[in-house]
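Q: I have 419 residues here and want to know how they pack in 3D. Can you give me a structure?
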Amino acid sequence: MSVQTEISLTPTQVRPAQKWQQLALGLLCMASISSPQYVWTLLTKPLLERLDVTLPVLQVTFSLLIVFQTFLSPLQGKLIDRYGAQRLIGLGTLLTGFSWIGAAVSHSLWMLYLMYGVVGGIGTGIVYIGIIGQVVRWFPHQRGFAAGMVAAGYGMGAIVTTLPISTSLAHHGLTATLATFGVGFTVVGGLASRGLREAPVVKATADVNLPRQRNYSSSQMLKQPLFWLLFFMMACMSTSGLMVTSQLASFATDIGVGQALIFGMAALPLAMSLDRLTNGLTRPLFGWVSDRIGRENTMFVAFILEACAMTLWLTFRQDPLLFILLSGVVFLGWGEIFSLFPATLTDTFGQQHATSNYGWLYLSQGVGSILGGPLAALLYQASHGWVPVFSLAIGLDVLTALLAITVLKPWRKRFIAHS
């Protein structure tokens, strides 16, 4: 039996209908904040025309969004644990919608930075950290699946809005589109957040052989070397995945398959569509698997899968069909980090401070966001080829997979037994 399924619950502690309702509301909240990140590319052209700036200067807006989403996560998690999920997540959805409304009337670059980048990043970060913290409490025996489902809501939520936003930009312009959808995000996310409730306290039954698990506060957790192993592993996987996925368009162009027609569609947009699907699917899928075979075993399988897919992707890069299919497998082996790591963290350090604790671990995603794209670009510029880029990414995948099965698994088992 895996470590995370060894503690049972009393029958009255979890009401099935209510926990599934909380999962659905979490999905809605996540979907309401996904567009600022995933639909940004549709906004760049009209924003360039409005502000009359260069693309690199405009892209600082997106960097600010990611930085404020990830690097404030410890503070955001602490506030949520102190003041309650409903209140703070509601505020986060309000800030996210308001960031688009503010961007709609922004006619200077600095105002856009403030509204879309800073306010939007703070809002999306609060909701993301808060919802993950909520569902791992509500689903103590299915933490991997639950965290994966809401993470998929964030990864795939923009699928619903991409076409309507694109159509609105073409017919109604930038200002009306940002204002309309900003109000929509506020309404959907705000209403969903009103239904959020605190999860019941999980207690061990009398016949459980293991002692009750200790709940570590963030300050206590940060003193544990085991946490920093988890942080290092997630940072490695985040960097590895973003090294390759951030360079997808450049990679396709350089190898000459980007515009090749497959099933009547250009290979690059077809690959990107498949990638978005598998990146969402992998989160609940591998989360569900980890609930059954163990977190570390699942990490090993998923991370090795990505390493193998990247190897084959590089080897058969001249084949447009394989380029599309293998890019989907790469994303299938990468996106699950957003379900496996939060579930593992809560299994290890307890659920009482799950939100604030995950806020600290989520900083590793910020590290990967900063390192991944620039590191790949520098390696490519220095070597004039993709082999060094893929080799480093594959090496990070293999290293993290081996750490999961040989170091993390026995260490975490001993740690929980002594807690």
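Q: Anything worth noting?
A: The domain at 13-199 is CATH 1.20.1250.20 (Growth Hormone; Chain: A;). Residues 175 and 331 are 34 Å apart (CA to CA).
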